[in-house]
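Supplementary Note 2. Why include the ligand at all?

Several targets in our set were suspected to adopt different conformations when bound, so apo predictions alone were not considered sufficient. For every target with a known small-molecule partner we therefore ran a joint prediction. The input for coenzyme A is given below.
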Amino acid sequence: MNTGSTNLGIASLGLKLPSRYLDVRDLAALRGVDPDKFTKGLGCHEIALCGEGESVVTLAAGAAKRALARWGGSPRDLGLLVVGTETAQDMSRPLSAFVADELGLRGAIRSYETKHACYGGTVALRQALEWKASGASRGKAALVIASDVALYAPKDPGEPTQGAAAVAFVVDDASVAAVDLESFAWAEPAFDFWRPVGESFPRVDGPLSLECYEKATTECFRQLADGKPLDEVLAAFSAVCFHVPFPKMVKKAVMKLGEANGWSEGVTSALFESKVMPAMDWNRHTGNSYTAALWTGVAKVLAGAEQGARFAAFSYGSGFGSELLTLTAGPKAKEGAWKADVAQDLASRTRIDAETYLAYRGA
Ligand code: COA
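The joint prediction is reproduced in token form.
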């Protein structure tokens, strides 16, 4: 297979988690639900929540500052700023303008927001990569950010899956990871998860969103396999990262992938345990962070990876669009400097109780 390898990719990485969290068992007690439903039934553990003065903008800017500090380039070396999000602050003004304000970025730079539910961050990354590969960048780098605050209406069945986080990349050389130019997309129009104009919270058709997510998984991985046995193709990858609405949904999609490829349940479970689960470690602390969810997982498995290790990253956004990317760890992956972002934010954040959560949500 021609992977379209280049020396382009992620040159630097930063993450930002908000300052508060709620344990889903406390939410279960508040809502009168068996906690096992949230922990075992959905695989959820913690919901990251914004505190006073925090928002999708401050998370995005926080992650970006960390990625930029590690990069070593100057803001003048950036020619593109793209923020993928579904937590729009305005129907016209792009989130990138709010973030540029925080970062003090202005001048000879293209700045915009991408929206495609949870797939928006991946689209931003792809555009930056293809902009670099096309020669249009004139040697400049891109700052790409995936940032979201995922909140459902109080008491919505999706409430235990809430969360927040931001991941930022400098897209330039492949010091952290090369991203293959060839990728595998699949899209179909559907109303599985959407937020009508003027409404604060999403509407979800849970069973349909699972069906769409499973179909997208099967179709993207079928293209990756390109007629070869998928298990053999996946053997070359150290980890297979998924968009994580909640961990059980990922498990269901992997089981479906196994069924579609005629694997025994044992083979599928082994793949899930060894290559999929480890990528969800940090997602357990953030909950769903929409555009940032997949990239939180990719950041997790890249941290500490040997140079040359291969990774697959499956992105899904309701509506629906999906894309499977392949990456190769670069020389800076082993050190995994961005682990410090997560360690610092987890160590300094505050666990809130159910009463505080209730006051925060108003119901
Ligand atoms: N102990 C253990 N497991 C339990 C349980 C208990 N006491 N009570 C329920 N469960 C299990 C159920 O069996 C079910 O597991 P299964 O799916 O493997 O059968 C799971 O918990 C969820 O229960 P369910 O009744 O289906 O939950 P729900 O109707 O409250 O729906 C969501 C909750 C989160 C599944 C639904 O709201 C949803 O799909 N939301 C969003 C999807 C999404 O994020 N899509 C966006 C983009 S992809």
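The radius of gyration is 19 Å. Residues 34, 36-37, 40-42, 118, 157-158, 161, 193, 204, 206, 209, 213, 245-246, 248, 316, 318 surround coenzyme A (CB under 6 Å). Comparable summaries for the other entries are listed in the accompanying table.
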